[in-house]
Amino acid sequence: MFLNPNKGKASYVSDQLSEKPLRSIAKTISWRFIGTLDTIVISRILTGKVETALAIGSVELVTKMILYFGHERIWNSINFGKE
Q1: What contacts 32, CB < 8 A, 6 or more positions away?
Q2: How far is 77 from 10, CA to CA, in rounded Å?
Q3: Would the N or C end of the chain have less CB density within 10 A of its end CB?
Q4: Is the dihedral of CA 52, 55, 57, 63 positive or negative?
Q5: Beta carbons of 73 and 24 less than 8 angstroms apart
Q6: Which pLDDT value is given to residue 1?
Q7: CA 39 – CA 58 distance, rounded (Å)
Q8: Each residue's pLDDT tens digit, 21-34
Q9: pLDDT tens-digit profile of 37-62?
């Protein structure tokens, strides 16, 4: 909505009412890469070891993608905040 000021309210509402699973998957993957990079950097700072940081990041990548996808799909089925 902010990127396209000409987008009308009807389009905004219809966008908010449904989100396809493929979109949730794309959001899940993009967010996890950002989150995993953050985890790897923090792990490297705390442990001082690149190998440990990468191991923590790789486990976290998989588990948090699964959790986020489930969270996203549950929220998509809740009407709270939708018109």
Answers
A1: 61, 64, 65, 68
A2: 20
A3: C
A4: negative
A5: yes
A6: 44
A7: 10
A8: 788 788 878 888 89
A9: 999 999 999 999 999 999 999 999 88
